Amino acid sequence: MREDFLAVVEKKRFLGREFLTWLLWRLEEEGGRLAIGGDVVELALGDRLVLQEQGERNAKLTLVDEGDMRSELGAGLRRGKLVDRARLSVTLQERTWQLTLDGGLLTYDSLRCPPLGDRDAGLADDPRALYENDLFLRLADVEHVVQLLDRLFAAFCELRASSRWETDTVPRLRSWVAELDSRMA
Amino acid sequence: MGFLSASSSIVRFDAKAPAHLDRAALCRAVNQRAFREHDEDGLPKAEAYGWVAIHDPLVVELETSDVFFQQYVMLGFRYDRRKAPAKLVRLERRRAEEARRREQGLERLGRAVRKEIKEEVEARLLLQALPSPQLFECAWNLDTGTLYFTGKARAPREAFAALFRDTCGVAPVPVIPYLAAERIGLTGATVDAVRAVERSSLVGGAAASGGAVAAVAGAAS
């Protein structure tokens, strides 16, 4: 069972990596404002990207840059790698989360949640109650950003399972990859 | 590293809560597996881990009010490793091997004896090694069956998953993309279709010439 599970993890790791690659493409194409359900969320790429190859070679390319990483991203994608991890900021209304999304495993690294906000003055004399209050607020923030990313992943899955993926999205992704690559020249 | 840290890494597990959770029994199970630095012989272990209270890692006798917070079970997880410095082990091992050779008048020691000396040296030095503690936290949302853990490193994550399974009777399964597909509101047919897909190549093909980019820019949906 455990070995089976690990085999599935490895074999299907590309799914999350395709999701992240698709997400970056959408950020480029749509300027970072994405409609998620009834919300409009602003997504921005941070200063760190990791691309990884699937399979035995598993070669990795890490990009760390405050500026434009498009040409290096294109070069990595052209060599058959996919985006494995990306530093992202997610803004909903006035609140911003920062995290490194690991597409291969769907984990949320170095997650920085929005500030907790004003504390209830009535809790000031009770440190334990204050701590629990903060913990609840923080967990709500964690679950909120996870749900937002889940909804994006759901949108990707809907598309990935449809015929539009092959007929429409893949050709456009290929064009994007080629364009990123051609900027190196 | 915890939920209230400035920055934390979150790993998500699927852990469906039983329909009727006996809170007192779970609290007893937590206390049975609370963090203990030493084993039954009172000796320090190379790896020691267990539950602590989420609000104070020094609290290892927990009440139900330390464990249950509305729809959540929240616990701290302490993971300690003791390790003698590798260079010191090598030097002490050499010293012990030379002493044994002189003692027994041998020119060379056999493999079995050398292995025995290595184990003895490691065990002796382990007694003097200081633990390197790591603190994590977990929150189990009983309503959604989602378990969040604030650590990604393999050894503590695996120790946590095993301890959680033994304590709660539920095996937590990491929510990898393949499994996540079935918990985000997709139809069964879509989940099956996603799980069956093979990787797409994003390289090559007629569209890869680069000339088509302008035509698609701004048109993604």
Descriptive notes:
With 185 residues, chain A is an alpha+beta fold. Chain A has 5 helices and 6 strands, in the order ααβββαβββαα. In chain A, strands 1, 2, 3, 4, 5 and 6 form a 6-stranded antiparallel beta sheet that branches. The mean pLDDT of chain A is 88. In chain B, 38% of the residues lie in helices and 19% in strands. Chain B contains 8 helices and 7 strands, in the order E-H-E-H-E-E-H-H-E-E-H-E-H-H-H. In chain B, strands 1, 2, 3, 4, 5, 6 and 7 form a 7-stranded antiparallel beta sheet that branches. In chain B, helix 3 crosses helix 4. The radius of gyration of chain B is 26 Å and the shape is extended. The model of chain B is unreliable at 206-221 (pLDDT under 50). Classes of the chains: A alpha+beta (185), B alpha+beta (221). At the A-B interface, helix 1, helix 2, strand 6, helix 4 and helix 5 of A face strand 1, strand 7, helix 6 and helix 7 of B.
List keywords for this structure.
heterodimer, A: 185 residues, alpha+beta, six-stranded antiparallel β-sheet, 6 strands, B: 221 residues, seven-stranded antiparallel β-sheet, extended, disordered C terminus
